Amino acid sequence: MDVSDLVARARDGQPRAVARLISMVENGSPLLREITARLCAGRPYRARVIGLTGSPGVGKSTSTGMLVRAFRERGRKVGVLAVDPSSPFTGGALLGDRVRMQDHATDPGVFIRSMASRGHLGGLSWAAPQALRVLDAAGCEVILVETVGVGQAEVEIASLADTTVVLLAPGMGDGVQVAKAGILEIADVFVVNKADRDGAQAVIRELRTMTALVERVWRPPIVPTVAYRGEGAAEVVGALDEHLAHLERSGELGRRRHARARDEIEAIALTALRSRFAHLHGDQRLDALATRVLDADLDPYRAADELLAALG
Amino acid sequence: MDVSDLVARARDGQPRAVARLISMVENGSPLLREITARLCAGRPYRARVIGLTGSPGVGKSTSTGMLVRAFRERGRKVGVLAVDPSSPFTGGALLGDRVRMQDHATDPGVFIRSMASRGHLGGLSWAAPQALRVLDAAGCEVILVETVGVGQAEVEIASLADTTVVLLAPGMGDGVQVAKAGILEIADVFVVNKADRDGAQAVIRELRTMTALVERVWRPPIVPTVAYRGEGAAEVVGALDEHLAHLERSGELGRRRHARARDEIEAIALTALRSRFAHLHGDQRLDALATRVLDADLDPYRAADELLAALG
Q1: pLDDT category of residue B165 using cuts at 50, 70 and 90
Q2: Closest by CA position to A24, among listed A12, A10, A43
Q3: Has domain B45-249 been given CATH number 3.40.50.2300?
Q4: CATH class belonging to A44-249
Q5: Which chain A residue has its CA at the smallest distance from B254's CA?
Q6: How close B48 comes to chain A (CA, Å)?
Q7: Closest Cβ–Cβ partner in B147, B177, B290 for A56
Q8: What is the rounded CA–CA span in Å between residue B272 and residue A147?
Q9: Numbers of helices and strands, H then E, in chain A
Q10: Where are the domains of chain A?
Q11: Chain A (3-32) residues lying within 8 Å, Cβ to Cβ, of chain B
């Protein structure tokens, strides 16, 4: 099937075409350029992107499932992109979580895809924008991007999403951990899941204290949930809608999306340059430079100069 | 003080010179190039790098402290680089953990520095090699790099370290989480901390099952510890030494360090290209391209072409 057919079918909402395009994007298909061109042609991107992140064990997948249900009840077409740092090695373990998503497996208004974040230059930043574009083309009005972890992945998700939800749960480590993970800065909405368990109130109190210390126009609301029972779904959706309204009022939505487009262009340009490196030098040239650096015959800056010199 | 003085003092083991150089490296000092050149001049890098990673709450800092003590008892000069995803915003919370490190604060054979992993292009990959070089120049024979988190940060630490230690602890989430974090692939040694708590045996059993499934020349040993009491320190050091011996025997040590040098050269070259972008185009050009992409007037690949065209 050629790309224009595939894109037409994805626009028509055919799940297999959507799945295939996302796989092509993820695997860095040589057709990526053409796919992107066709996805973009004459049709501005529209879908709202909500990032969900948190440590392993807080109930991200269950919460994502709850939100899918809530948005479906409100008549929205929903995409889910689960970005997982698992390697091919451990990818199988994912299934345990994805099982809960099978509630939605037969709903034509829901597209669910897992993507690995490893092995690609720049992690998420490289393939995810194209995957969002595929889901947008398929008519998704809301896209939930779920990612594990603290640190880099969280920062990346925040730069991809219009609204970033940070999930916490009681019993995941003491209070200092919340601060340590550096999440205050990226959270637009806090969800404290497993709110029926001991310690949930303490987590909420601590978050309240912390968010009160931060001077920002938008103070992230803190929403308790019990995701496996669907408790708190309406409140989370309410908080998300309020944040979207805030983004629109303040002009921040446009700024975030503009910054995202900049990042994407730059990432593509850098990837192109990187492959130009590979062509110019092959592995041997860089190998030889690395050996000289290890032998203290050359410092890495001068080695980089030599690498760049051939680019002109 | 000029760079050659500062490097001379660092080589002499003066902590303030070491601290100052690492700060300069971390902040992307304009003198970075000269610093690196002087650090590299005529002296191959020697220090052994051990990465420690794991989720928040497993006891990374305590374990790092235990290993510092163990290596000091064996007469080694030790460097610690704590790479934290915290932002300036939340950086203060770090102090809670670092307190335990103060045992070593007055030992001239130990250098401890925290680095933020945010805000730099490529995270760890950019500044950490230079920071390792500073610690190596100061005579550190062992450098412990401690990092929070799962996902990208872990992959990065594995590419920096000769040996990667993955820390786990009971009660941090169910078994599937171990697989999910994608850690099997990067772990050279597993340490199960808090081994005196309920559930430690289950974590060890699960790890055993998982590592048995993997076909690799080196099967990661699993070492139980109770870090705050120093229990298991000798066993961890033993496992680390065995792994180092394996790396040397198999030639893998040379390969890892060569790959690291390649990565470093490439990262510097890409950073240079990126700043060349900034010079050529300024923000305005990229802004205009981003706007056109948002308006669906241009796809991001063609925008990247335009950005690159001016580079020639």
Answers
A1: very high
A2: A10
A3: no
A4: alpha beta
A5: A294
A6: 14
A7: B177
A8: 31
A9: 12, 7
A10: 44-249, 264-309
A11: none
